[in-house]
Write a structure and sequence with these properties.
The chain is α/β, with parallel strands linked by helices. It is built from 9 helices and 17 strands. The N and C termini lie far apart (68 Å).
Length: 334
Amino acid sequence: MNIADYKGLWVFAEQREGVLQKVSLELLGKGRQLADKLGVELTAVLLGSNIDKLAKEVVAFGADKVLYANHHLLKNYTTDGYTKVICDLVNENKPEILLVGASFIGRDLGPRIAARLDTGLTADCTALDTDDTTRNLMMTRPAFGGNLMATIECADHRPQMSTVRPGVFEKLKKDENRQGEIINVDVKIDDADIRTKVEKVVKSVKDIADISEAKIIVSGGRGVGSKENFTVLKELANILGGSVAASRAAVENGWVDKAYQVGQTGKTVRPTVYIACGISGAIQHLAGMQDSDYIIAINKDESAPIMKVADLALVGDFSKIIPEMISQVKALND
């Protein structure tokens, strides 16, 4: 492998049922920044069936070029189909960096591509940068259960690959006037290349909100005390039109589903308002919510770390403060 032959930054533009996924737009935003720093093109890789409008959309969100693979066998995601098409494109065009969102699809697709291309992959990253001297991608992710942040390089193989956690980066503002090159890829794929067949797409039975999309979050930690005590937090979240969330301690105690965990080993959120109840504010939790626009912390311990990062710190018992907040909000709504 001659590393000098590889140039350019690619982002896998994940779409589901004709809708671009938010994490892909976030990666285009970060990819634009990194591509400009490296002085290379930002290319979006878009796979699907008859989704021409999405090709224009990824250009509007920062891509210089779109490799658009339009084929009926790519309508629904399959590991075999998507891996083959993307690996063929990589071998032909030789990008130096390939970024994939750490969604359910991305977590499946990224490792398969990396294995087939005989390159490395750093999973579930929370930060990306490039080295000014080597041009290597610096990929940062939680390690040892979130107690340490590790920065990893893939110096000897290309492309450098990373899956990136949703909510970590900000998408660019959509620019409808932005110009970019859309290349219709000649897809070489047939039924024999795909070992699985999608018979039916069934939505998840569990009604779990995506907290990374919530504008208002009411989050509870160890200090909430029990699963039953989360009821009042959920009530406040509901009347505010937001979502409940939790710290790692609350999830490990079985009080809240893992899907609602905020932090290095959970999800990264950027709500307009983040209300933290009974959360001490360990660095692992702060990493997942410190970019919230306005933070309200409720804790009996005035010296808890969360109180130092809060815009409004309330020293007291959440079980008394939250019901009063509910009462006040209801009075405003009446």
